[in-house]
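Dear all,

This email documents one entry for the complex benchmark we are building for the journal club exercise. For each entry we list the sequence lines for every component of the assembly. Then comes the predicted three-dimensional structure of the complex as a token string, followed by one or two observations. Please use this as the template for your own entries, and keep the labels exactly as they appear.
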Amino acid sequence: MTGRAWKFGDNISTDLIAAGRYYHLRSNLPELAKHVLEDARKEFAEQVKKGDFVVGGRNFGKGSSREHAPLIIKIAGTRAVLAKSFARIFYRNCINIGLPAVVVDADRIDDGDELDIDLEGGIVHDRTKKVELKFPPLPPVMARILEEGGLVEYIKRHGDLVIAGT
Amino acid sequence: MSGQTLVERILSEKSGRDVRAGDIVIAKVDLAYVQDGTGPLTFRQMEAMGLAKAANPSRTVVFIDHASPPPRKELATDHVYLRDFGGKLGAVISDIGGGVCHQVAFEWYVRPGDVVIGADSHTVMGGAMGAFASGMGSTDVAVAIGLGKTWLRVPETIRFDVKGAFPKGVYSKDLILKVIGDIKTDGATYQSMEWGGPAVHAMPMTERMVLSNMAIEAGGKCGPIPSDEETKRYLKAHKREKDWKPLKPDSDAEYEREVEVDVKELEPMVARPPQEDNVVPVTDPSVKGLRIQQVYLGSCTNARFEDIKVFCDILKGEKVASGTRLIVTPASKESYEKSLKAGLFDVLLDAGAMINSPGCAACPGVHGGIPGDGENVLSTTNRNYVGRMGNPAAFTYLASPATAAATTIYGVITDPREVV
């Protein structure tokens, strides 16, 4: 099943994803999700469909630690966030909530391209351009958390942080 | 153990083995905190994970600072939940009026050598105490509170060696803006920004805090500064000298990169919208003389007593320019009280300022000074993204308290060296 690429530029901040003026909606995530990325691309929240992809440039998710930012991207239906690079806290938050965050050469993807992803194989398929974009695997600890559905599910299952080699 | 950076030393101690950049560790967490924007989600995640207790209640702090006092019923109701769940955990509640989490944590809780995890990106400010302090999302902090530990990748370090004496009217805010302008907002992503050198050791703690605070604006994971005699003086002034211990990197530490900075010719700097690395000297024609509708002296970055003092020393006897408004939000109750007792509120009120209760207020765009469409704000805060201060149609320029004061008097961006 493919999904549409929604392209965003470099340095998309968490303020662009989950704006401060909607602070009062942070305990009402479905309502907050209606405003996801509103100040970057107003039509995104209205038109995004389940299984679509958010495609950013460099330093996607820079700024605050608000986990609400990746949460509302996920709630809006996004299957994965692809970017040339991520800000650290946002990247870790994505994995913790079970939203794949993939470092890939996003310049080769255009807005509206139909994409599919093979997470285990490390490949983004651009069906529109008929090209395959390879991406490196997650660090093992993050791959494990993502496989298990996020950090909440991980802790529910293991009751502890159990990480090989630590 | 030798050859370690500051962050490697701290994380070796807290993980019980000799670790280096790139290692994955599980570290003991000495202080975990949330604020009212991230705390409700943290506590909901604790409930979802079945974590009903805090591993270390007296070192778990709930700060109610972003919506303080709450401007909306939804936020007030979040506060009800935070006080209730935080109370069940036995956590410390720093309630409305106490001040910004990072400032209050620094005054009363952060210790040299600590691992500090906060659900807010400016947690990095704790680095100025000689701690490993880093911001994380709500779920990571939920685990840190419940289990008393977290997993970390030991970061590589960029070492900033600072020498020279600051010229009059130039401050650490100008230094960090210059550095961010040079290395850009992702120039230290995943890395530790370690500060040292004679100019850093000569800085009072409140100036060092600005350097650590804005590490995140370059993408940094932490911004540690060695613990020295000034650290001891600061702790003693807060009646916790026993928390002090000296801490510094090894002289043969291995750095990813070493950057030397001489501040003797540094100028006052301004970060233009839409982000913190869009930096020019205050003399640049794109900012000098720019009409400013609102000056905002606030945030964990630059609204301590010492910042308000610098501001008032320039403002004293002058008025806020016609067409400009001045809003002041002291960073903490301590800064608020010290400013009041030192007569600084008289200076501010005589000039025509308005003063908020301590907290985050307009910095993250929640309340207390959200700008109107098309307006320009000169702010002592840390971020100037589109929408950051609550209005995507307004423009925020970041600068030091001194530049903010000079700008207040003239109503246009003004070089503070012209008035000091």
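Observations: The radius of gyration of chain A is 15 Å. Chain A has a mean pLDDT of 96.
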